[in-house]
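Recall the central idea of this unit: under ordinary conditions, the amino acid sequence of a chain determines the structure it adopts. In this exercise we apply that idea directly, starting from the sequence alone.
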Amino acid sequence: MKFDKALEAMKNGKKVKLPSWGGYWYWDEEQQTIMMHTKEGNELDIRETQRVEYTLGNVCSDEWIVADEENTPVLGGVATFNFGEAIKYLKRGFKVKRRGWNGKNQFIELATAISYVSPAGKVVNCEHEAIGNMAIAFNGTSGVQMGWLASQADMLAEDWIFAD
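Accordingly, the structure predicted from this sequence is:
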């Protein structure tokens, strides 16, 4: 939902969040402000945010959801997100995985500074005009697979989570 609907929900007593968040926001009637409850359990008045650009970017999102015991870690749930968000987190250096992947400790991460040894024994540093020197690495039960390609099921899934 867009933020105007999220604000309305907060004013009606609901907690709201973006899908990947461990915490939530809620309306404090007494102070007439939005309070941010962080994944660490801290409370912060939105007017005291230290990262104004980040906070305003969140306000502009149209992916707000009601926070509950199933989708919010501080309430006992697990935060999930879509593939687009997973890619954003990869680019920020996080490891992500599908909640439904069967293999233990499987995840993907962004690999950089990629090189290989040619049959002639020369070390070649990969460089691609469009993506530079990066690829998605799949860390699975059999080892690391460079250049992992997402299936349509992976791309359409809403069960992406952060890997430990």
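The helical segments are 3-11, 52-59, 83-91, 152-156.
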